[in-house]
Amino acid sequence: MYDQLTIERIGFAHPRIRVELENYYLEINKKLPKGVRLRFSSVYRTNKEQDALYAKRPKVTNAKGGQSIHNYGLAFDIAILFDLDGNGTFETASWKQDKYFKLVVDFFKSKGYTWGGDWSSFKDNPHFQKDYGYNWRALQLLHVLMDDNGINYPVL
Predict the structure, then answer these.
(1) For the chain, which ranges sit under pLDDT 70?
(2) How many whole angstroms separate alpha carbon 82 and alpha carbon 102?
(3) Within 10 Å of residue 140's Cβ, how many Cβ atoms?
(4) Distance of CA 27 to CAs 76, 98, 152, 153, Å?
(5) From CA 29, how far away is CA 52, in angstroms rounded?
(6) Contact, 95 vs 34, CB < 8 A?
(7) Residue ranges per domain, the chain?
(8) What's the pLDDT at 48?
């Protein structure tokens, strides 16, 4: 019913969204049919990991390290997993905007998350974020940090 890797990744989300994110993750998976599961392919990213993505070609992000909401634990990317042979391994990942992807998009948007597919300048279809009205520049300026899981998160 759920993906253990996703549950582990949610453990690195900002503490303010961690519990709700896990609950929403479990809830949306109940809405997906047998043989289909949601995976969070990325949640928290270090600046170094973000810089590596920024350097990739073809281009997958406009954000350098420190410029992504992922760097503050307030974003996640998704993939839809399929168990094509019915053995429970969910070995096939898809980013195709099919009916399952759309179900996930509608679900998280209904919960107050911004979807990167709605952006006009650089569409990022797998991306969702809950930024509480802060952009990356404002998040960088928050001086009070909370340390959890060895990660410093801005206090919101």
Answers:
(1) 1, 143
(2) 15
(3) 14
(4) 16, 19, 28, 26
(5) 30
(6) no
(7) 4-146
(8) 97
| pLDDT digit string, tens, across residues 20-65 | 999 999 999 999 999 999 999 999 999 999 999 999 999 889 999 9
The CA distance from 9 to 17, in Å, is: 13
Q: What is the pLDDT of residue 25?
A: 98
Q: How far apart are CA 137 and CA 30, in angstroms?
A: 37
Count of C-beta atoms within a 10 Å radius of residue 72: 24
Q: Which fold has domain 4-146?
A: Muramoyl-pentapeptide Carboxypeptidase; domain 2 (3.30.1380)
Q: Which residues contact 112 (CB under 8 A, 6 or more apart)?
A: 130
pLDDT of 143 reads 67
Find, among 63, 82, 83, the residue nearest to 71 by Cα. 63
